[in-house]
């Protein structure tokens, strides 16, 4: 196991019990959790079967699980539709209830009742059908945080088209890679999106991507920013115009429980992002269960998750898990600091948000901005706070709890991954005491362990690798088009268990603390990025001969990106140009914080780049460990002194 890259040492030893008021109204008590958790492991068929039966199935399942390691089938033989369960199922009791309340960066507000959202999704489903989209086809969605992104996802799910949402901050190149890997023929995008008051040109990125996507036949373009964009006849259609004469009645298609619901690309330790495949039934059941339990959902909650729908958090806890529960979801389009650092708190006040789910990087940046920003607003509507995406340091946890939650709102620190589909480790807010910096205990049906590199289970407080010992309903089914990579990366690293890629430890009370990734995956502001991806982007610049990218601890972003670069003989290029190049190749989230140039990179005699040394250099540490295998020791001095 590599050294801990994130300073997550617990100096904070306080525990926080849920208040008597919270406990009294909570969905689950500690006894409920203990009883149900035991049942979920001892009798999973009964446990999962009873959760699943709260939802609608066109045909009942015959078996809860068929496990043929590493391939799982959940609710075998069952037929359902997640969009039906998220919308139609609520029409009777919640038709007029607000499903989505949306605030644009420019302050515009739109509200969709469950009935209206259902109507819009039915029309969009009919539009997709009229364009020849069939069950099983892939559709790529490249949209900002506007209601149409949820409508497009649900319309795909309704007809059984597999969606692939690409984060709007990704570049044309990253978009093209995902269109090609998924084999999509249709792209849904927008003219542009607003970010810090400026227009992000989504359509022109899409046009650029389309130059290298031979499969792509059509583009549907949502009007958001209104600037003129070229429309290619025969290929491009306006979303609003195309929907005008489309009927708003549509019967949701009964789909096999294992029908592919979506592909979401995420970074791994190679240069190429992997397409994580989620299917319908198990994902539906587990996001429904966890959304209700972890966020203690009540009928009158106004729930706000600040994640973009381009990430898994947006899939599971902006769209699917929440609408499956009939919740009211707030969506915000823009930047957290626009027009100023008070924007989030103004939104909480204006919409009377009761549950807020955000990322440590945002919490740390608000903490830095000062208490005067939240102090200007009335945050008394809040009753529960959540954190996701990276380890939260105890200092940020305490600030969130006290300054935002007024000391009365439990904080749930939820550990999970794109691959897991749903929350895996957390506390339940009315059941468990919380320990700042520690995510908590396993959710129902999840059986984790901490093991050493050989797979031997370790005891309390011993640091090791986090694994999951049995399949769960919302787990990824494969890497799209690459069963072998799925098998070897997730179920082959340590035999017969799911390998998460995180380092962790468990304390004597059974609470898990996540230390961070142990592979070549960085976590920058809660976003996963492969070091190899950034390296490939750098070496695609003509001046660059070789590049090595490492993370270094960053007080706000969790990790920052440092790139070590050697240039082609005679070539000259500045750090800023290379940073801009990476931004163009992948997206702004991948832009290195620092570029250091050298004549060579430190390598072993067998030619492997010594990343351990580079990490120490990047964070300004003393060089530790064995350097005797280094080919050219002079290189180290150069890397340390060149800035
Ligand atoms: C949901 C999501 C997954 C990686 C994961 C881990 C880190 C997520 C965390 C956390 C500590 C938490 N991570 N939640 N680390 N505490 N509560 O973020 O998915 O983008 O796939 O990232 O994020 O390292 O392995 P994804």
Question: What's the short version?
Answer:
The protein has 643 residues and is of the alpha/beta class.
Q: Find the structural class using helix and strand composition.
A: alpha/beta
The helix content is 25-40%
Rg, nearest Å: 24 Å
Mean pLDDT over the full residue set: 94
CATH fourth-tier homologous superfamily of the domain at 525-641: ANL, C-terminal domain
* Number of helical regions: 21
CATH architecture of the domain at 525-641: 2-Layer Sandwich
Shape: globular
CATH T-level fold name of the domain at 525-641: GMP Synthetase, Chain A, domain 3
In this structure, how is the largest beta sheet organized? 7 strands, mixed
Binding site for CoA: 195-198, 313, 337, 525
Enzyme class: ligase
Keywords: Acetylation, ATP-binding, Ligase, Magnesium, Metal-binding, Nucleotide-binding
Domain AMP-binding enzyme C-terminal: 533-608
